[in-house]
Specification:
- It is a single chain.
- The protein contains 16 helices and 15 strands.
- By secondary structure, it is of the alpha+beta class.
- The chain has two domains: 347 residues, no CATH class; 116 residues, Immunoglobulin-like (Sandwich), CATH 2.60.40.
- The strands form four sheets. Strands 6, 7, 8, 10, 11 and 13 form a six-stranded antiparallel β-sheet that branches. Strands 12-9-14-15 form a four-stranded antiparallel β-sheet, with no helix packed on it.
- The protein starts with 50 loop residues before the first helix and ends with a strand.
- Keywords: 4Fe-4S, Electron transport, Iron, Iron-sulfur, Membrane, Metal-binding, Transmembrane, Transmembrane helix, Transport.
Length: 505
């Protein structure tokens, strides 16, 4: 960063005294000073050109491309397995992310992703405020797209204001209809693309074109279409200001070294329009600063925030006001960056005549970085070392045991063998901790009997067996006996275990 040049001083200019608002008499049915609801003025965001507007366009294009293209990317996994690169298969109870396959038993990976996402936003906020909100939040991206469509159909800011104030005519009705039709079209594409993440995209597209979709798919497309249309077309900035929970506690993530959209009031105040015949020396003598009160920073803001009033919860940190103000400063021959991304410590340093600094390594950033690194490493190690075999055992509770005519005691178990590989496998199952135990499988003589069983599991499936365990009277221990159910894969030798108990009188 560099200090403003020319004759800009670093002394704080006195602000113009605000005229007190004339009190308005209360309505007869109202209590003075008590208002139940205040209508929020509609925001007519103006278009602007500049560096931050270009960054927002680039972010919008990249993010929308990722959203719409990802379901169509293929990833070969073998016969009988979906080849969609990213797929949440609700029917098959799987989640596929490129080469990674997540089973329902591994939902903790989702927890890890949520932790990474949360602390990633914390980290970004600590560095640059609500940069996520301004550039990458889905609400911002789709609202930006809807506003672009609105400007293309209804015209620039002043034209839209005049159109809304004008009585309904054929031309106005046609423009409004065209705008909402375009919004609904975008919303329909958005809802349809979201459903593609939960179904095979080419198959679902063919079903859509032939009108052969299930009621569940139709319901979700309608739901996501409506929410996109409502949030991005109607609610817009009110989602960011009133609904989004992040705006309530994002202030706890920032400090004096966080880059925020900042108005240099020591330069700009007091505000006042600029007359053509007025020199800057005359403005300074009159106590006026660089801000000519053109309100362009307010007009381009998607939430209608006046950044000159200081940091506010409604500011999403997009920086469009910086582009608008810089354009005005260039036109009137004053230094740019009256509104800029800056830190509180730098602003204080400028006023005191001290050098600026950029302090990225701080306790907050270090802690957030370490947390993300630990979680990412833990997830990576867990993925690399996760077994391809999982065994679960459920013992029958009614009855707890059966005493047979020869005095032996029998327990029944439901054993599930999870084969996470893409080939069929066989497993030798034993019960460790029971002496002279005899095992058998209900209705499956091929599994064998005796001290061990041979259980098979097809590729990428869970094989379920009902197993009976009989212990002779001479080997039975009264009460509960701890056992370990061990399944060993015959080819690779991989072992899976599950603890259980054997009950006896």
């Amino acid at each position: 960063m560099s200090l403003p040049q020319e004759d800009t001083t670093l002394t704080r200019r006195p602000a113009q005294a605000a005229k007190p608002a004339a009190p308005s008499p209360a309505e007869p049915h109202e209590e003075p000073g008590r208002h139940w609801f205040v209508n929020r003025p509609k925001v007519y965001a103006a278009d602007v050109k500049g560096r931050f507007r270009q960054i927002k366009w680039a972010a919008l294009i990249v993010l929308l491309a990722i959203y719409y293209i990802t379901p169509w990317i293929r990833w070969e996994r073998g016969p009988g397995i979906p080849d969609q690169a990213v797929l949440i298969d609700m029917v098959g109870r799987r989640a596929y992310f490129l080469w990674i396959e997540i089973w329902p038993q591994e939902v903790y990976y989702l927890t890890g992703l949520l932790i990474l996402g949360a602390f990633g936003i914390f980290f970004a906020t600590t560095l640059a405020g609500r940069i996520w909100c301004g550039y990458a939040c889905p609400q911002t991206v789709w609202t930006d797209l809807f506003m672009w469509v609105e400007r293309k159909i209804e015209g620039p800011r002043t034209a839209r204001i005049r159109l809304d104030k004008a009585p309904m005519t054929g031309a106005k009705f046609a423009r409004k209809t065209a705008k909402h039709a375009a919004w609904i079209g975008i919303s329909l594409l958005t809802g349809g693309a979201w459903v593609f993440y939960f179904n095979d995209a080419p198959t679902l597209m063919s079903d859509l074109l032939h009108g052969n979709i299930t009621s569940g798919v139709a319901t979700f497309i309608a739901l996501f279409t409506f929410t996109t249309y409502f949030f991005a077309g109607w609610a817009r900035e009110q989602i960011c200001i009133y609904v989004c929970p992040w705006r309530s506690f994002q202030s706890a993530m920032v400090d004096e070294d966080t880059f925020l959209v900042t108005y240099e009031d020591w330069r700009g105040e007091g505000r006042g329009p600029m007359r053509k015949s007025q020199s800057w020396e005359e403005r300074q003598a009159a106590g006026l600063g660089d801000c000519i009160d053109c309100k362009q920073c307010v007009h381009v803001c998607p939430t209608g925030t006046d950044i000159r009033e200081g940091q506010q919860i409604s500011c999403i940190g997009c920086g469009l006001c910086v582009d608008a103000c810089n354009d005005v400063m260039r036109q009137i021959g004053r230094p740019i960056d009256l509104v800029r991304f800056d830190t509180q410590s730098n602003q204080i340093a400028k006023i005191d005549g001290k050098p600026e600094r950029v302090k990225l390594v701080r306790p907050r950033t270090v802690i957030y970085s370490l947390i993300m690194l630990v979680v990412a490493c833990a997830m990576g190690i867990a993925l690399m070392l996760r077994p391809t075999l999982d065994v679960s055992v459920l013992r029958d509770r009614a009855p707890l045991f059966v005493t047979l005519s020869d005095g032996s005691v029998q327990n029944a178990y439901t054993i599930k063998v999870l084969n996470k590989t893409h080939i069929a496998r066989s497993y030798v199952v034993t019960f460790d901790g029971l002496r002279d135990a005899q095992l058998s499988v209900a209705g499956d003589e091929e599994a064998g009997s005796g001290g061990s069983l041979t259980l098979k599991a097809d590729a990428d499936t869970v094989a379920t067996y009902r197993v009976f365990v009989k212990v002779p009277a001479s080997a039975v221990k009264s009460g509960s006996t701890d056992v370990s159910v061990v399944a060993k894969e015959q080819a690779s030798g991989e072992v899976g275990k599950h603890a259980s108990v054997f009950m006896a009188p």
